[in-house]
Amino acid sequence: MEDDREYIQIKGSNSSMGQRVVLTPAIEKDIDLIVEIKTDISLWQYEDDVTTDKEAVRKNVVERLDGRWYKQYVIRLNTDQRTPIGAIHAHWYVKERESWELGYCVFPEYRRQGYATEAARLILKYAFDDWQAHRVVAMCNEHNIPSYNVLEKLGMTREGIFREELPWQGKWVDQYFYGILYSEFHKRSTNT
Ligand SMILES: CC(C)(COP(=O)(O)OP(=O)(O)OC[C@H]1O[C@@H](n2cnc3c(N)ncnc32)[C@H](O)[C@@H]1OP(=O)(O)O)[C@@H](O)C(=O)NCCC(=O)NCCS
Is the pLDDT of residue 16 over 90? Predict the structure, then answer.
């Protein structure tokens, strides 16, 4: 196995908590993979603004590698091969309000096996326990059922609907806004 310090994994008996995936903080050797993921339109069918400008995206990815306000991870299977199956990130939403925003993608062949939920749960744990988040939010296209199912499985609440906020496939669609508080996450963690 490569450098173990790169791996974030919740150890413990709760099988839903990161037993099947590990998150590795993006480092230089992951840049190509992250750029590919962020610019592959076919992976982001519910987004309205995916850029295919690889150079611009690469510049952003490199700038964010220091990881202070933008935490980028590769989602990998928890096997000896550490096969990459997607990417997940969290970034300051409103720094002064201690809120973070979450975003993720799992490659199509690995979907519907609970991997995004596991990966996002790890991120929530790190946000609340290590990055002093008071609140974590996420947004998605009203048609992105897989994404809001993940958010709801995490215990996040649909707090609002931004009506016709997104131009998508030639029409205006709603954006759902989800949030979870520190207190809710910890109450939930102790109950599961
Ligand atoms: C959203 C995404 C990350 C979900 O990944 P995933 O690993 O398949 O998610 P999970 O397996 O953890 O699924 C969580 C829940 O959503 C449900 N779900 C997943 N895909 C679904 C689908 N296509 N239709 C309906 N429900 C779905 C799962 O069934 C699961 O609920 P269950 O355990 O009760 O069955 C993945 O579909 C993806 O990468 N989409 C493209 C990128 C994207 O849209 N990102 C979000 C931008 S807001």
Answer: no
